[in-house]
């Protein structure tokens, strides 16, 4: 993650995450959490939309947007050498801007839709190639991130700490009448 | 140090594969003074290469050459086995159980089951007792030879509590080939928790750091890593004369041989026989029965995760040191033949767990979204887990075939592996799911997930033993019925699968085969 964005970066709208164009890519900033990310390939609209989508897919209230932003960075990195991926993501986000009501179809950018409508739209495209791509990237980028996994009780590599033989491999305390072995 | 042999030396025994079958056979022969060249498709690692990271080690150790799964298998990765010196003994969990007496006589014990290609083994438990005992001593199996059992970790204690509350009696930390105290130059288990990513301290038995270096020390053994065998050659009498293999750079060589023994796991072993077709053997070598590649078994498996009312930290400690043995009996009143075990098994880290529950369990609240993260992911530290493993039915339609057009990087036809559950497998799995869920409920669990089988690690039966040459590929010594100096030396030999993890039986059969082969060599019979 890059943190080279100055405090003067333009923040759009009322959301805590702002977006600004930067060359071919974009810069996302979050003033509350004091982080920013820049993309090289994905547009600001696509980057922010994927961040929002990642949050809808695997929401955890105790996780700041910065961890979801890393999913976007990973995808942008892959898109540098895979133009079909960039195209898939840009088109997928555009499709999410389509709102299909009972008697009409109209367009509102995914990032500007209300949360409930965003969710409804994600359910509409569940299983599509674009959806599975972002879902897989979120799964890997979020839960595969050791700093994130630690919040859930994943303790990571143990051999360098001597394993758990003296660190609680059998420390369960809540079972009644622990059986003899 | 380690000897090297000339490629034209036709006095050597060539062994293909260095895992539980090939690694043990090679050392046993070398200890008896027989010269061995072992050709291993994968690279050689040391303990320093073993890290506590699931993704890294999966990529480093696994057999990832192109394979197709059909039927009930995972299409892109039908098997989870290894391509490395030490084979799948680098990855295995260490559970080392003997067959039950009736499991060597499946046909007699279970009778005629429609669609099942059952057969009695040509050997029985009495014949195998001595070899089981030697295998347990070699591997340092806990609960045998006076070796204490491992202490129970949290995940075991949850299973033990629930199982005993339900009235199960035979519940303990199992017979594990993981040192509970220092033995045979290897340390005791540190409860590290990444057994199946490779044991970083070598407390778990693996041929990588036991059999293979010991064989090398005899001066009768050479192992050539990154040597993928493409074909077995034969003479006009139909005897095996050597093998053709590709080295790390893709250059092909022929190694001459007096005897060829194949131990490439239950897909590569029949695949090599099929790929070795010739004008003399138009259906592949050793295949006069038509049984090469057939009767593929992978065990009835499934997984139950229980959400417990308190923290379990299931990643801590020996992964599979925990077993309930009461359901292994053959009791047709349960609605199926054969039996199964429950064994502890945690979730391989948050990333794999979070994906697998949604993808593999119908009980999950979907695969994503608020309910999924709250119920499944955010309960990670409270999860307990067990694996269900039981006998599955051999079926002719389940097996290994060669793809008609697709080739792998060696230019060989890609193997297509088919497996479809037999009705008996399904009935057993449903019984086991219920029993496993009940164990966790008895410990206070409000929610359980029943996961479908993972990619297969227990692969058996594709070159099975039979008393009669028309029913199978090899005899009770592993010698093929058709070609006396061509042997099957891995789990492909299994006539039926029994309920238990196959490694101990593979090792015991390899010790037995080495005894027999040495005798035949000294008598000049092969």
Description:
The complex is a heterodimer of chains A (181) and B (526). With 181 residues, chain A is an alpha+beta fold. Chain A has one domain (17-154). In chain A, 41% of the residues lie in helices and 13% in strands. In chain A, strand 2 and strand 3 form a beta hairpin. In chain A, helix 1 (44-57) packs across helix 3 (83-96), helix 2 (65-80) crosses helix 3 and helix 2 (65-80) crosses helix 5 (129-143). Chain A is globular. Chain B contains eleven helices and 17 strands. In chain B, helix 4 (125-139) packs across helix 11. Chain B has one domain (13-522): FAD/NAD(P)-binding domain (3-Layer(bba) Sandwich), CATH 3.50.50. In chain B, strand 1 (13-16), helix 1 and strand 2 form a beta-alpha-beta unit. In chain B, the strands form four sheets. In chain B, strands 4-11-12-13-10-16 form a six-stranded antiparallel beta sheet, with helices on both faces. Classes of the chains: A alpha+beta (181), B alpha/beta (526). The interface between A and B is large, with 38 and 48 residues.
- Poorly predicted regions of chain B are none
Number of strands of chain A: 5
Number of helices of chain B: 11
Alpha carbon gyration radius of chain B: 22 Å
Shape of chain A: globular
Low-confidence blocks of residues of chain A: 1-15
Structural class of chain B: alpha/beta
SSE topology string of chain B: EHEHEHHHEHEEEEEHEEEHHEEEHEEH
Could you tell me the mean pLDDT of chain A?
86
The percentage helix of chain A is 40-55%
